[in-house]
């Protein structure tokens, strides 16, 4: 059972999440031979103000 944890800065739409889940599941099925029905994906949406790159806050 593949488990993917995806952390992103900001919010994604439901449509974006669906497209990402499809791409990740398709890739694991094609390359790792894991049935897409067994793939779990968790989206962790973090407010941009809680992210920094180097010394700069993103939000």
List the SSEs and their pairings.
Blueprint: E1 3-9, H1 14-32, E2 40-46, E3 52-53, E4 56-57
Parallel strand pairs: 1-2
Antiparallel strand pairs: 3-4
Account of the protein in words:
The chain is α+β, with helices and mostly antiparallel strands and 59 residues long. The protein has a single domain (3-50), classed as Macrophage Migration Inhibitory Factor (2-Layer Sandwich). 32% of the residues lie in helices and 31% in strands. The protein is built from 1 helix and 4 strands, in the order E-H-E-E-E. The strands form 2 sheets. A two-stranded parallel sheet has the order 1-2. The model has no long low-confidence stretch (mean pLDDT 95).
């Amino acid at each position: 059972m593949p488990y993917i944890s995806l952390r992103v800065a900001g919010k994604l739409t439901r449509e974006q999440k669906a497209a990402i889940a499809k791409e990740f599941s398709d890739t694991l099925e094609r390359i790792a031979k894991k049935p897409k029905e067994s793939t779990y994906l968790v989206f962790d949406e973090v407010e941009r103000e809680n992210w920094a790159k180097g010394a700069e806050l993103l939000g």
